[in-house]
C-alpha cells in the first residue's frame, strides 16, 4: 500500500483511526503540526488519532524510470527542465523587485523635495512673523516670557530676519533712548571727577611678584585656543570663548566650571558679561550673536540668536546702562541692540569705508564708541548721532583690540605692530610700544578698572604702570606665555588688579597673581 500524501510505499506506515487512510509517519506528523487536520478529508486530526502499523521490512521497488539508461536520461532531462524553469521564475522575481525598489526610491526623492519645499515655506513664514513682531515690538517682560529656549542654546528665539526686498527693518534709536544715554553719561562723568584710586588696589610691588597660580583646561583638545576673556567682577566668574565654538563660565574661587555654553557652529570671537540680570553675550565667526540668561541653578539658557550680520562678528561690547550693547563685524557694519528684547535698533554702515571691523569698545561714559578695522584704522563714533567723529591712523595690520581707560582720556589700541596710546582730548597718539618682532602681533590690551595699570598680550604678557601724556609708562612685570604656543591671545584684570586671567592658543585658562603667603604679607 502507498502513502496517501507521497504516493510511495511508506517506511514507517501509520493509519488514521478516523479516515482509515495510510500515511508516512514523518509526513503526517509535519502536516498535523502545521494544519491540524487530515490532508485528504479535511477532518480535524491529532497525533492521538494516528496508529502505527506493524509490517515486515519493506524493500522499495526501483521506479520504472530508473530501471534503464533511457529512463534515467529522461529523468535527468526533466530535472534540468525544472531547474531552468525555477531559475527563470527567480529572474522574473528579481526584475519585479528591482522595479519596486526603483519606484520606492522615486517616491522617497519626491517626498524629500516636498519636505524641503515645506521647510522653505515655514522659514519664509517665520521671517514674515519676525518682521511683523519687529514693527510692533512687545514689552520686555512679555517678550522674555514668550521666548522658547532650552539649556545651552539647543533651541531659542531667532532674530535678525530679512524684510521685503532684502532690507532689514530697523526701528531706530528713539529720543527716549538718547535721553537715557545722555543721562547716564552725565552721571558717570560727574562721578569720574571725584574718582579716587581704591585703597584695595594691588600695589606695584605686588604686581612685580606675580606668578602663575593655576592653569585650567576648559576647552577641547582637538580644537585648542582661547580667543576672548571677560570677568564678572562682582562674582569672580571668568568667561572664555574658544576655537572649539563653545563659551565656558569658570568660578575662579572654587576652581570649577559652572557651565559650558554650546550653540555656535564656529569659533567664539568675543564674550561679555552684563553687570545686571545675570546676562551673558557671545559672538562668533558663524555670523551670529547669542544672548544667554542665567538661572537659579547656575545654568544659562540661550534667549536670543541674533543674525543681523552677514560676515564674522568680531566683537561685542556692553553700554554702561547695561540696557544696550553693540556688535561689530567684518561685513563693515556695527549694530546697536536693545538687550531686553534682542532687537537691533540700528545698523550703522559707512559707505565710504570698505574695511571690516575687528574690535569694538564703549567709552566708560557711554556716548563714544571705538572700533578697530582690518585696514589698521581706529574709528571713533558718536553713539547718539551714529556719526564717525574721528579716525586714528598709524597702525600696521588689523586692529586686534581696543581698551578705554577709566580716567576717560586714554585709549589703548593693539595691532600687528604693537600698542598705541591715544589722547582723546587732543585726538592724537602720544606713545607707542613696539614690543615684539614683525612676525608676532599684539593680540590684546586691557586697562584695569581703576585705570592704574595696562596689560598687553602677545608672545608674552606685560603689565605697565599708567603714566600720563608726558610721564613715562613703566613696564613693571613681564610674564611668560606658558602655553608653549608663543601666542597669548587675551588678557583681563581681575578685581582690584589682584590677578590676571590669560588665554592662549592652547586650551588652558591661566591665572597669574600673588601666592597666598605673599598676599598676606603684602596686606600686612
TrEMBL record:
Enzyme class: transferase
Function: Ubiquitin-protein ligase which is mainly involved pre-mRNA splicing and DNA repair. Required for pre-mRNA splicing as component of the spliceosome.
One Pfam short name: WD40_Prp19
SMART domains: Ubox, WD40
Gene3D superfamilies hit by this protein: YVTN repeat-like/Quinoprotein amine dehydrogenase, Zinc/RING finger domain, C3HC4 (zinc finger)
Location of region: Disordered: 149-169
Self-association and partners: Homotetramer.
Predominant localisation class: nucleus
Species this protein is from: Gossypium hirsutum (Upland cotton)
Protein name: Pre-mRNA-processing factor 19
EC numbers on record: 2.3.2.27
GO BP field: defense response to bacterium; DNA repair; innate immune response; mRNA splicing, via spliceosome; protein K63-linked ubiquitination
PROSITE patterns (UniProt xref): U_BOX (PS51698), WD_REPEATS_2 (PS50082), WD_REPEATS_REGION (PS50294)
WD repeat start-end pairs: 261-293, 306-347, 358-391, 392-432
Entries under InterPro entries matching the protein: Prp19, Prp19_cc, RING-Ubox_PRP19, Ubox_domain, WD40/YVTN_repeat-like_dom_sf, WD40_repeat_dom_sf, WD40_rpt, Znf_RING/FYVE/PHD
Entry keyword annotation includes Transferase: yes
Residues annotated as domain U-box: 1-70
Location within or outside the cell: Nucleus
Pathway, per record: Protein modification; protein ubiquitination
A GO cellular component entry from the record: cytoplasm
Molecular function GO labels: ubiquitin protein ligase activity; ubiquitin-protein transferase activity
Protein family per UniProt: Belongs to the WD repeat PRP19 family.
Domain of life according to the entry: Eukaryota
Amino acid at each position: 500500500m502507498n502513502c496517501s500524501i507521497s504516493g510511495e510505499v511508506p517506511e514507517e506506515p501509520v493509519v488514521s483511526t478516523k479516515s482509515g487512510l495510510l500515511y508516512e509517519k514523518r509526513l503526517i506528523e509535519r502536516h498535523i503540526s502545521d494544519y491540524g487536520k487530515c490532508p485528504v478529508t479535511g477532518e480535524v486530526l491529532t497525533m492521538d488519532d494516528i496508529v502505527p502499523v506493524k509490517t515486515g521490512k519493506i524493500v522499495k521497488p526501483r521506479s520504472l524510470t530508473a530501471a534503464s539508461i533511457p529512463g534515467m536520461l529522461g529523468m535527468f532531462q526533466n530535472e534540468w527542465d525544472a531547474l531552468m524553469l525555477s531559475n527563470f521564475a527567480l529572474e522574473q522575481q528579481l526584475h519585479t523587485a528591482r522595479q519596486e525598489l526603483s519606484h520606492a526610491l522615486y517616491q522617497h526623492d519626491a517626498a524629500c523635495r516636498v519636505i524641503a519645499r515645506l521647510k522653505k515655506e515655514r522659514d519664509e513664514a517665520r521671517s514674515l512673523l519676525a518682521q511683523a513682531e519687529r514693527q510692533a515690538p512687545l514689552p520686555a517682560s512679555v517678550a522674555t516670557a514668550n521666548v522658547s529656549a532650552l539649556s545651552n542654546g539647543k533651541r531659542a528665539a531667532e532674530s535678525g530676519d530679512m524684510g521685503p526686498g532684502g532690507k532689514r527693518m530697523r526701528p531706530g534709536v528713539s529720543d527716549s533712548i538718547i535721553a537715557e544715554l545722555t543721562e547716564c553719561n552725565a552721571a558717570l562723568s560727574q562721578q569720574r571727577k571725584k574718582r579716587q584710586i581704591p585703597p584695595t588696589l594691588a600695589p606695584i610691588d605686588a604686581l612685580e611678584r606675580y606668578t602663575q597660580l593655576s592653569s585650567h583646561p576648559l576647552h577641547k583638545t582637538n580644537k585648542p585656543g582661547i580667543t576672548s576673556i571677560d570677568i564678572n567682577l562682582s562674582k569672580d566668574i571668568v568667561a572664555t570663548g574658544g576655537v572649539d565654538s563653545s563659551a565656558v563660565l569658570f568660578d575662579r574661587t572654587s576652581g570649577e566650571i559652572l557651565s559650558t555654553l554650546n550653540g555656535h557652529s564656529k569659533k567664539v570671537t568675543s564674550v561679555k558679561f552684563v553687570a545686571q540680570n545675570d546676562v551673558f553675550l557671545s559672538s562668533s565667526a558663524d555670523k551670529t550673536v547669542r544672548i544667554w540668561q542665567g538661572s537659579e541653578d547656575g545654568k544659562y539658557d540661550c534667549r536670543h540668536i541674533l543674525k543681523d550680520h552677514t560676515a564674522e562678528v568680531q566683537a561685542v561690547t556692553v553700554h554702561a546702562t547695561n540696557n544696550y550693547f553693540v556688535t561689530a563685524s567684518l561685513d563693515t557694519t556695527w549694530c546697536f541692540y536693545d538687550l531686553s528684547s534682542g532687537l537691533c535698533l540700528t545698523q550703522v554702515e559707512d559707505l565710504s569705508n570698505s574695511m571690516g571691523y575687528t574690535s569694538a569698545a564703549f567709552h566708560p561714559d557711554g556716548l563714544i564708541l571705538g572700533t578697530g578695522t582690518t585696514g589698521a584704522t581706529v574709528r571713533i563714533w558718536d553713539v547718539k548721532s551714529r556719526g564717525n567723529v574721528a579716525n586714528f591712523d598709524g597702525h600696521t595690520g588689523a586692529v586686534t583690540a581696543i581698551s578705554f581707560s577709566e580716567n576717560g582720556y586714554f585709549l589703548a589700541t593693539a595691532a600687528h605692530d604693537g600698542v598705541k596710546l591715544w589722547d582723546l582730548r587732543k585726538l592724537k597718539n602720544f606713545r607707542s610700544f613696539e614690543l615684539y618682532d614683525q612676525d608676532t602681533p599684539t593680540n590684546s590690551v586691557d586697562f584695569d578698572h581703576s585705570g592704574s595699570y595696562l596689560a598687553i598680550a602677545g608672545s608674552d604678557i606685560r603689565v605697565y604702570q599708567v603714566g600720563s601724556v608726558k610721564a613715562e609708562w613703566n613696564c613693571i612685570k613681564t610674564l611668560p606665555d606658558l602655553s608653549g604656543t608663543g601666542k597669548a591671545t587675551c588678557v583681563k584684570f581681575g578685581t582690584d588688579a589682584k590677578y590676571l586671567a590669560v588665554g592662549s592658543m592652547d586650551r588652558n585658562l591661566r591665572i597669574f597673581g600673588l601666592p597666598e603667603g605673599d598676599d598676606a604679607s603684602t596686606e600686612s
